[in-house]
Design brief:
By secondary structure, this protein is an alpha+beta fold. The chain is built from 17 helices and 21 strands. It folds into two domains: 4-123, Glutaredoxin, CATH 3.40.30.10; 149-401 and 436-473, no CATH class. The strands form seven sheets. It has a five-stranded mixed beta sheet, covered by helices on one side. The mean pLDDT is 95.
Amino acid sequence: MTDGWIAVVKRDCPTCLLVEPVLHELAAAGALTVYSQDDPGFPSGLPVVDDRELEVSWRLQVETVPTLLRVKGGVEVERTVGWLRESWVSLTGVADLGPGLPEHRPGCGSRSVEWGVEQELERRYGDRVLTSRTVELADLEDEVEAAYARGWSDGLPVVPPTEQRVLAMLAGTSRRPTDVVAVVPPDLVPCTVEKVAVNAVLAGCLPEHLPVVLAAVEAACTDGFNMHGVLATTFPAGPVVVVNGPIRRAIGMNSGGNALGQGNRANATIGRALQLVVRNVGGGRPGEVDRATQGQPGKYSYCFAEAEEDSPFEPLAVSRGVEGSALTVFAGSGSWPVVDQLSRTPESLARSFAAALRTVAHPKLVIGIDAMLVVSPEHGRVLRDAGWDRTRLLAELEELLALPGSELVRGAGGMAEGLPPAALGRSDADALIPKFRPGGLLLVHAGGTAGLFSTVIPGWVSGPGGSEPTTVPIEGA
């Protein structure tokens, strides 16, 4: 850029018309370059650079016209938008600009940020070059039905991933489209940032959701989480995504009322995008590698934010050693509520939690299956007022859930299900056995502020051959 002042204007802007005499003053006072977005003859009487192709506006990241910039050493050092006499005088050093004009008028939107135009400019001038195959549709072919026909859908309609939409999605991250995020099971296909962006478009995500989707794909495709096993089991497991840190609020995630339900775009589409990556990139389709006997609705999308405000616990990710914006992926099945509307002490409430948690998978199956307990704010208040934190509640639950082997062995209680006698490992049948392995019970705080209900999300098999909850930072958040 040439040193001096740069003005970006368009005739179709009342404020640009208003400042036309000011531009003449600046041209007489120093080096001024004017770029016009819609009419190379405007402003009249000045040398104007034709920017109807909007390349300069796009490269300067102009969002509002008029925009006035000061360039020194070929580098922008200052800018102001709209008309504010004080700002224009400060930027140019020219006193008494625009006598007779009002002190301030807001500008108009730049043509370069209009919907569709911005994406086209990114395609034309940006350094993000898509490598995905382009699928040509017939003029009369319906885009949504075409996605169904090609197997790209999870059963619900998807957003057609046009080149413009994918480029707009990629603007949500600074990572290169060709960077490999993960190798996606079950087909072990390398998945690039671009492929994640395609599926994020399909899912209905916004660009600001993309960093969370990328982190979720990364976490779910680790050996520890074992996405292949989660798919292949006949148990109704699927990835549950819990988001922590500032990004929750930045992208408008729901951690309050109905946090585990429908209605919030970020919650719904982030979880769905992860599942579509597994389906469309990794090949994890129901009836093929996905062998769930019955499945559960969370296999569409299972994603929510933790309510860190007023929580009795430190955030889940922090408890697992990751500060800031982060997420945890947990192999969970369908949720069920824990109702306790009478407990006013943490001791009583913990007993209700323990009674519900004992039934995870089966009351007589222990250690092999993890669980997540989502504590609601009203239940959380009982714990917080008593000074119970995560460590205190987990210790209480561990004690309450230590069960005698005589109650867990096969045949006890008239139920064939249970532990084989040899699994008890000692002759004393009344030895206490923990319900969960160390670290196998996760605590999360979420939900609306009214309602004395919490939620249990049973997990899948833990340990070797099973799934480990996996926590990763959200890059760029």
